[in-house]
Design goal:
about 450 residues, alpha/beta, 19 strands
C-alpha cells in the first residue's frame, strides 16, 4: 500500500517514520526547501537555532518517548527556566510565588488572588465545564478586573490580537496546566532542549524514513488531491514549475486547514468544521548579540506601548557556550495575517524594536547586534473559539482513505511539537487498524 503524506513538518515526518517501520510505501511532499516546519533551524552567526523558539515540557511524553525510540534521548538536556514580566515601563522577575508577592502593580489582595486562581486551575481536571466560556469572561469573573487588565488580559491580546475575546477558556486552562506541570519540587520551572537544535530530531526522522525506503520530495507543492467515487486516487503537485501526478492508496494531509480546502472539495459539514478555527501569523526576529539583554529566559510583555508580545533569550536557558559565547534573542509577535508588520520593511521594523529593547536594558545599543534573521509564518496559531469540542474536524475525512492532521485538532492543549507527534501516532493507528480489519475480511 502506498501512502502519500502532504507536509514535511513534525506530524508528516513522524507519521512517515511510523509507517515506514510497518513496511508501507511512503512518499512525503513538502512545499518548502526544508523539513520540520516551525521546529526547523536556521544558521545565525554559524550557529543553528530554531526559526521560532522551542523547548520541551516535562509532560511532553509522546515527544520524549519518540526521542528514546530514535536513540537521541542523550541530546535532551533539562535546564531551569527564568521568567520576567515587563509592565508599565519596568521589568520584574516573575518566576516564583515570592516574585508574585513583590509585584507592585497589583494590590496585595490581588497578588494572593492571582496565586490562588492559578493553583486552582492547576488542580482542575474537568476542563469540559469551561467548554462554553471564553477565557476573558472567566478571568474577569473569578480573578477580577485588576488581574485581567494588568496581567492576563494584555497577554491574551498580545497572543491573539483582535481575536482575543473569542478564545475559549479550555485553551487558557491548558496553558496554565502545562506551565505548572513542568515545575520541580521547589516550584522552579524546568524546560528541556535538544542540544544541537530540533534539527537533530528532524534529521534523524528524515534519515530513518529514507533508510527504510521512503521518499521525501522538497519544493513540491500539492495542488490537488484527486479522488474517484469519493476514494483517494492520486495527488497533483508542482515542482520546478512543472506539474506531476503521483498515484496513492492513502493520503495524510498535514497542511493548514485553509490550504486543505484548496486541494479538495469536502461536503459542507466537514468544510465548516475545517473553517471553525481561524489562524493568526507569527512575526519573529532572531538576534545574535554581544551581550545579554536581561537575566531571564522568557519575558512576557504586558505593556501596551511595546509593539511586540514577548522576548525569549534562548541563551538564558541553554548555555551560551553552545553558541560561541554569543547571546541568542527572539523578538516575537502573533498578529492577524493582514497586519502591516508583515509588509513593513524589516530593517525599519527592527530599528523600531531596538528603541524598545533599551527600555528593558538602557545599556543596549544597535552595536550589540552581530546579526539578525527574520522569519514569518502565516498559520502559526489557531484561534480556538468556545464550543470547539463539538467542531473539531476528525482525522478521518469524508473522502475514503484521506486523513487530516494539523494544529486545529490539538485541543484543549495549545499547539506544540509534542502534540504534533501525538497526532501522527493517532492517525497511523487508525490506518494500521483499518489495514488489520481489511485483512480479517
Amino acid at each position: 500500500m502506498k501512502i502519500i503524506i502532504i507536509g514535511g513538518g513534525i506530524t508528516g515526518l513522524v507519521a512517515g517514520y511510523y509507517l515506514c517501520k510497518k513496511d508501507y510505501e511512503v512518499e512525503i511532499y513538502e512545499s518548502s526547501y526544508f523539513l520540520g516546519g516551525q521546529a526547523s533551524a536556521l544558521r545565525i552567526n554559524d550557529n543553528l537555532v530554531e526559526r521560532a523558539y522551542h523547548h520541551i515540557f516535562k509532560n511532553d511524553i509522546q515527544l520524549i518517548n519518540l526521542m528514546q525510540e530514535l536513540g537521541i534521548i542523550n541530546k535532551l538536556k533539562w535546564y531551569q527556566s527564568s521568567v520576567g514580566i515587563f509592565s508599565q515601563d519596568k521589568l520584574f522577575k516573575f518566576s516564583s510565588p515570592l516574585d508574585l508577592i513583590k509585584f507592585p502593580h497589583l494590590s496585595i489582595f490581588n497578588r494572593f488572588r492571582l496565586g490562588l486562581v492559578s493553583l486552582y486551575l492547576m488542580r482542575v481536571k474537568n476542563w469540559e465545564k469551561y467548554e462554553h466560556t471564553t477565557a476573558s469572561k472567566w478571568i474577569k469573573k473569578y480573578a477580577g478586573n485588576q488581574i485581567y487588565n494588568i496581567m492576563w488580559g494584555p497577554l491574551l491580546k498580545a497572543k491573539f490580537g483582535k481575536y482575543y475575546k473569542l478564545i475559549g477558556m479550555p485553551w487558557f486552562w491548558s496553558k496554565m496546566k502545562t506551565r505548572f506541570a513542568s515545575r520541580d519540587s521547589k516550584g522552579n520551572e524546568v524546560l528541556g532542549y535538544i542540544n544541537g537544535s530540533f534539527d537533530v530530531l528532524i534529521n534523524k526522522l528524515r534519515d530513518e524514513i529514507i533508510q527504510k525506503g521512503g521518499s521525501i520530495n522538497l519544493n513540491s507543492k500539492i495542488l490537488k488531491i484527486n479522488s474517484d467515487n469519493s476514494k483517494i486516487k492520486s495527488v497533483t503537485f508542482k515542482k520546478n514549475n512543472t506539474k506531476y501526478e503521483s498515484l496513492g492508496d492513502v493520503v495524510i494531509n498535514t497542511a493548514p486547514s485553509f490550504e486543505i480546502n484548496k486541494m479538495i472539495n469536502f461536503d459542507s459539514k466537514y468544510k465548516q468544521k475545517l473553517n471553525t478555527a481561524k489562524y493568526i501569523g507569527a512575526s519573529v526576529f532572531i538576534l545574535s548579540l554581544k551581550e545579554s539583554l536581561t537575566p531571564y529566559y522568557w519575558i512576557n510583555i504586558v505593556d501596551k506601548n511595546v509593539p511586540f508580545l514577548g522576548l525569549i533569550e534562548h541563551t538564558n536557558l541553554v548555555p551560551k557556550c553552545y553558541y560561541g559565547g554569543k547571546h541568542i534573542l527572539y523578538i516575537t509577535n502573533y498578529l492577524a495575517n493582514d497586519d502591516p508588520v508583515f509588509t513593513t520593511d524589516k530593517e525599519d521594523l527592527i530599528n523600531k524594536y531596538y528603541s524598545h529593547l533599551k527600555k528593558l536594558n538602557p545599556n543596549f545599543t544597535k552595536d550589540w547586534v552581530y546579526e539578525y534573521k527574520y522569519n514569518s509564518v502565516s498559520a502559526a496559531q489557531p484561534i480556538i473559539p468556545i464550543g470547539y469540542n463539538e467542531n473539531i474536524p476528525s482525522y478521518i475525512s469524508p473522502i475514503k482513505n484521506l486523513y487530516i492532521g494539523n494544529t486545529t485538532q490539538i485541543y484543549p492543549e495549545d499547539r506544540g511539537t509534542n502534540y504534533s507527534v501525538k497526532i501522527a501516532g493517532e492517525i497511523v493507528s487508525l490506518i494500521l487498524n483499518k489495514g488489520a480489519e481489511n485483512e480479517k475480511r
